[in-house]
Fold these 4 entries.
Entry 1:
Amino acid sequence: MKILFFLLYCLAITGDASPIPSLIADASSASSPMSDSKKKVCLWTYWSVYITNMIPDPIVVHPQSADDDLGNRRLTFGNHTDWNFCLHVFLKTRFYAHFYWKSKTAFFDVYTYHLGESYCKDGKEFFKQQRCYWIITQDGFYLTKNPNKFLIGATKLHNWS
């Protein structure tokens, strides 16, 4: 019984927002948003965040958390970047990102428990894999749980500055 508790404790400690090591730096060769990366074993919910550029010009995205700096990712039109992580035991996982397009910039949270629950969660199953899709356009940043590039069901949350 002690071993079981120890294993659950270790899983809870190592399950906090660790990205899958096979992340790509240049998203021009990224796989489809519908493809599943190697899944992690999570104590709670397993999340994937996708950021898709729908601007004709390339943009640079720099996602990170308190624990993981995912680096700059250059996205050309129609391409995306993504990463995966386990929800922290105390629901405090937070990823934020800097966005750069020509002379415009933006900086905001791209994943928090509140954003996931409000805009991305698909169903009530707590242990089911969940996905957030950010769609970047010339007029702003849209979040949805549906993998579409036409903003169907998406909510505009931020503007460029």
Note: The chain is about 15% helix and 35% strand.
Entry 2:
Amino acid sequence: MLSSARHAFSRVPCRAFSTTSTRAYDVSKLILLGRLGKDPEIRTTKGDKEYASYTVATTNFPPPPPNPDGSRQEAGTTWHHIVCFNPSQTNYLRTLQKGAQVYVEANFELREADPSADSSSAQAQKQIFLRHESIRVIKHAPSHNETHE
């Protein structure tokens, strides 16, 4: 019995890391823990498909190291723009509100600048394109009634 198990496992490659093309796919994933900067917006592509667009704000913590004089800059906020093309997730995103604390997983790709674009436009700069994979609400935004009590 032991020899048959050993024989079955002997055919499985045992390399932990490989640079060959036998890998099924590569992954580029970004994980965000932040707050929705505004209510998600539902938009339509040129092909008439709905998608959701939303923004997550994260605060860089800890703040940058102290300056030579001992002063320290404030921690900065980074705004991440994410798009979601999954219809069921788009419907869920409609229910979320600005201020909700969320955990987001997104695939990303770096898009090269368009050399023919106007230098002051976004297309003339490298851009990170974030494609929604999943979202979890950590804490719902306070309702309008709760903020005035």
Note: Helices lie at 2-10, 87-93, 144-147.
Entry 3:
Amino acid sequence: MFPRDFAWGAGTAAYQIEGGWQADGKGPSIWDTFCHEKGRVFGDQNGDVACNSYELWEKDLECIQKLGLTHYRFSLSWSRLLPDGTTRHVNQKGVQYYNKVIDDLLACNVSPMVTLYHFDLPQALQDQGGWKSPSIVSLFDSYAKFCFQTFGDRVKLWITINEPYVCAKLGHEDGIHAPGLKEPGITAYLVGHNMLRAHAMAWHSYDSLYRSKQGGQVSLAINSDWVEPFNTDCNEDIAATERYLAFTLGWFAWPVFVTGDYPEIMRSAIDAQSKKLGHNDSSRLPSFSKDEPSVLGTADFFALNYYTSRKVKPGEGCGRMMCMKSDRDAAEVLDPSWPICGVSWLAVVPDGLRKLLKYIKDTFNNPTVYITENGFSQVGPLKIEDVQRAEFYKDTILKVAEAIQEDGVRVGGYFAWSLLDNFEWADGFSVRFGLFHVDFADEMRSRTVYQSGQEYAEMILKHKLGK
């Protein structure tokens, strides 16, 4: 059902699991700052300790081995390696920590997939404008080159930036993620633009300086739901669905995989809305400069984070105010037949993943796709026998197999989110995505495998044996 070299993985991110927020010379990140402000996160919780993976890495490695993973996706904390965000000061304790993680994984025949940026910008760089500032591009490139130079002899799969859509919109438009800015209608587009520029520059640096020696691959992780028209016979619903896809998946995939520029649907929708509101300056969606390295072709594979699906119809604006919702003019509708797991937004639609994979194949020139995140949440009372989540993984992996066999999609791997229950951003510890439960009331942060983790391990073993 799956290629012999298929990557069976699980993922985590530095701020969500590591803790040690001030340990051994680490600098603060924007998530440290955000969580220490009252009212930002559920229960005013924070990632100061989280799963304490900075001290308990060996426990994580045991979990990885129990599952029989071939790959493990984790992120580097930029401010643990470079406390002020620049290479002027390197924190050797941070380098030692990640060297140990990588070396231990390889000693257990597990390949690392390493994310350079998973939401946690050094606060020192935020103080200089963060992702809004054009200077962030070369600062990110310097950080990326430092990581390629330091770890790239052993890391062959790199993600530059995780979910630029989420960083841009939730962090700079909605204000519900760090850095907590609410600057609707302009800043998210600028941040997304600088993230694409930073990604492209880092990819070109890898391509020209490291690829021939290290032989790795570099991409960025793009999140997208699968969407369909609320009424398949309604032209307005069909158009709204196209806009929705352009403003999420297309925003980052179109420049990288298709044209080197943003989707025309996206630009024309933004410009039309600007005109309507009397905003007659230059387009709120920036343009790529011919003087910079091209963003087109700067991905060696397609990294997809998929969680859920939606039906779409026109609507959901902000009245006379400029905002992304009004630009997009696409309202999300949940199909009542879809079960909800845990958090209200997460409808369980495994078939949506198959459809999205086929869409990616047809739209983005048939790339190799790694599903870099996909998971099922639990809220409320703890259930170690998480039967629904175990079923979800079975159903989803079956759909991935169908995408490979019947639709001809070149899927290179599947990474469950997440290895561990962890700090789930603005939801704190109230939402659990782990294959292993972490007891946050226990100082030792004991890890206990969920039924879904055991069954995922059985699936992996079965496919490894070619059954």
Note: The radius of gyration is 21 Å.
Entry 4:
Amino acid sequence: MTRANGVAYALVARETTPLAEHSEVEGNAPEVAKKVLQGIASNNRQVSRTSYVQGIYLFHVLVSDGISFICMAEEDFGRRVPFVFLEDVRQSFTAKYGTQALHAAAYAFNEEFSRVLNQKMNYYNTNPQADTIGRVRKEISEVKNIMVENIELVLERGEKIDLLVDKTDSLQDETFRFRRQARRIKQEMWWRSMRMTILLIIVVFLGLYFVLALACGPRLKNC
């Protein structure tokens, strides 16, 4: 197998049916890729990312909605850039062909999409920013994970939130009892004041009567 730096081979397939491919090397990369397809054919209805070792090469696989995207690169090229490359290929292929790929014949899109594979391989193999793009996308993925964890931590504080609600309800009950007690005390004070007023009126009346009785007699007939 002739060696090449970076992504050396790329394939798009439905189950074991190749739809488009491009190779920068000579050798048996297509045969190995077909073996990989046979191995993942039973698990191609969900998004998955896997790498398979073949000598000094890694076959990186991205499976999405029944379509497999495979690329081959030397092991020392790493995994981040190849998977960013595959995600880019997946987006371009899905946008261009959509559900056509689910029923297309073998190599139906090869004439057109092999050129796209060639262009993207050249870009990710030669552009120094390709690794930066991969790193940024990886960091975005890590941020998503952190956000989910933070949300889960917030959800785990539900018990504390419930306790706070219970305490708030208790404060409301205490406020209600305080108001009721204050109303009762106010009423008691009013009645006490009323009794004092009535008693004062009676005292004044009796005092006035006593003065008049001294001057006019007990029956007040002489006034």
Note: The radius of gyration is 45 Å.
